Amino acid sequence: MIRKFLLALMLVVSAASCVFAQQSTPAPDVKPTILDPVANKRVAEISSQLRCLVCQNQSIADSNAELAMDLKKQVVKQIAEGKSNQQIIDFMVDRYGDFVLYNPPFKLSTLLLWVGPALFFVLALAALFWTLAKRKKQKAVPLTEEQRKRAEALLKGQINQKGDH
């Protein structure tokens, strides 16, 4: 009886989840409205240098997030206005900070980005060597005669770990 009830409950829950499921629609791809192949190449070049602020592990050229789409449109707009690549990148950095760049400049505010991984590695190695040195300094406490006999009996299979013979 309980099995039938649980089966019916599972069927109802799974059917209800299907009712609320929706088909996701991909974000529209931003196609530059500039027909000039040089300008299209510039859009791709600039977009590959800028990080998607939503995805963080993709450039705005690779991302389909809405913010990335808006940033691509902004790049297209500024190219159409005649701005240079550096002016467009400077505009994005002014607006979103150095984090928007895939290769942020080496300066005090980005020092942790550049030095952090190496510092973490050195600290991890130091912790490893400290732990190993600490273990080496520890003296092994010898077993009592009773503990040694019990260990030998365990190894020979004469007794189980609970102490039964």
Number of domains: 2
How many helical stretches? 6
- Main beta sheet: none
Give the full name of the CATH homologous superfamily of the largest domain.
Answer: Cytochrome C biogenesis protein
Mean pLDDT, as a whole number?
Answer: 80
CATH level-1 class of the largest domain:
Mainly Alpha
Gross morphology: flat
**Into which percentage range does the β-strand content fall?**
under 5%
Sketch the topology as an H/E string, one letter per element: HHHHHH
| Rg over CA atoms | 32 Å
Structural class: mainly alpha
Ranges where pLDDT stays below 50 over 5 or more residues in a row are 18-30
CATH topology of the largest domain: Helicase, Ruva Protein, domain 3
GO molecular function: metal ion binding
Pfam family, one: CcmH
Protein name: Cytochrome c-type biogenesis protein
Transmembrane segments: 111-133
Brief summary of the model shown:
It contains six helices and no strands. With 165 residues, it is mainly α.
Features:
single chain, 165 residues, mainly alpha, Helicase, Ruva Protein, domain 3, 6 helices, 59% helix, flat
Description:
Helix 2 packs across helix 3 (66-80). This protein has 165 residues and is mostly helical. Mean pLDDT is 80; it is low at 18-30. The protein contains 6 helices and no strands. The longest helix has 27 residues, at 111-137. The chain has helices spanning 2-20, 37-49, 66-80, 85-96, 111-137, 145-156. The chain is flat, with a radius of gyration of 32 Å. Possible subunit of a heme lyase. The chain crosses the membrane at residues 111-133.
